[in-house]
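Good morning N.,

You mentioned wanting to compare the apo and holo forms, so I went ahead and generated the holo version with adenosine monophosphate. This is what I fed in:
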Amino acid sequence: MNFENFNFHPSIMEGIKMLGYIQPTPIQEKAIPAILNKRDVIGLAQTGTGKTAAFGLPLLQQLQSGPRGQLRALIISPTRELAEQINIVINRLGTKTGLKSITIFGGVNMEQQIRSLHHRPEILVACPGRLLDHLWRGTIKLDGLEILVIDEADRMFDMGFLPDINHILDCIMHKRQTLLFSATMPENIRLLANKVLHNPVTIRINPEKPIANISHFLYPVQQHLKTNLLKEILTATQTGSVLVFTRTKHRAERLARQLSGEGYTATSLQGNLSQNRRQTALTGFRNGSIKILVATDIAARGIDVLSISHVINFDMPESTEDYIHRIGRTGRINNLGDALTFVTRSDTDKVRLLERKLNTPLKRLRMKDFNYSQPIPVR
Ligand code: AMP
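and this is what came out, ligand included:
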């Protein structure tokens, strides 16, 4: 199977070549024909499987014919970072099509956003809250919408966006094609899918199973030794870009500060940052000038940096779904990746659940030269 099989418009084929895609990924192989057949689709696929192009390419193909200069496709994303990421991919794939895609999310000047809407994009990539503001003000109208994509629906639900999504859906009364993507399919998402999709095709790409080219390791450690252990690992290991996850914004901020203080090029990505500072952090991480990004789960949605060699769970994720989301940031497509998780005694239950979900015991590692018996520092 190659991209020629889909009979994409030559301008779209150029975009595919520019991004260097040779072969469709499994989700693309299955989703693209169904979407081109105008079917509603439920795509159960984790991040890193190529799902953006799986909906982005057929979306561009369908918009290639028909009116220009009016809003025809809407992609709803849970976070700004993911929205930015999707927008970049769509604009790159569609660079020769003349179709325009812009992002709409909060934390950015409203008037500026209204001005960019004056350029009459055909595609919007939006976060729910700000999109609703525009819908209520009348600065965005969905009358001509042909395709609606709801991306990372499970995360959207976790973040409490379901009421917003329902309000947005109330603004689209007419028939349109709807595509819903989610890494997992909890009951509430199934209910949403039943409500908004018509006779959907369900495409399942090993949902809830992490990608095969990732190695998982556990590092048992006491809470107070985590920072030192992290430094030891960073010194002893050859890494590309490293994404470190902490449980809270505050811990992310503090750890990034400690690492920078030790001479690492590190920064944090967490909800306390202004939109500008988030963007600077992400751009630096993408272009390699920042090697270590310390992030929280929510802030890290949509990070797409192919050179991430290691995901380090400084704090054990709350759920196995979060684990899968986090480690989905490494080992993308054909790259290899390592997922390292620091575990303390209190994580025992979570580790058991994780091993059950992955259906395999995870390897426990100890750093050879690390002093595991350092006492808790006295403050
Ligand atoms: P996604 O799951 O959409 O976040 O995509 C993960 C990564 O895979 C992104 O860096 C994409 O640019 C890349 N990608 C998507 N489709 C392909 C493909 N067919 N061949 C190679 N890389 C791809």
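The two ends are 62 Å apart (CA to CA).

Happy to go through it together on a call whenever suits you.

Best,
F.
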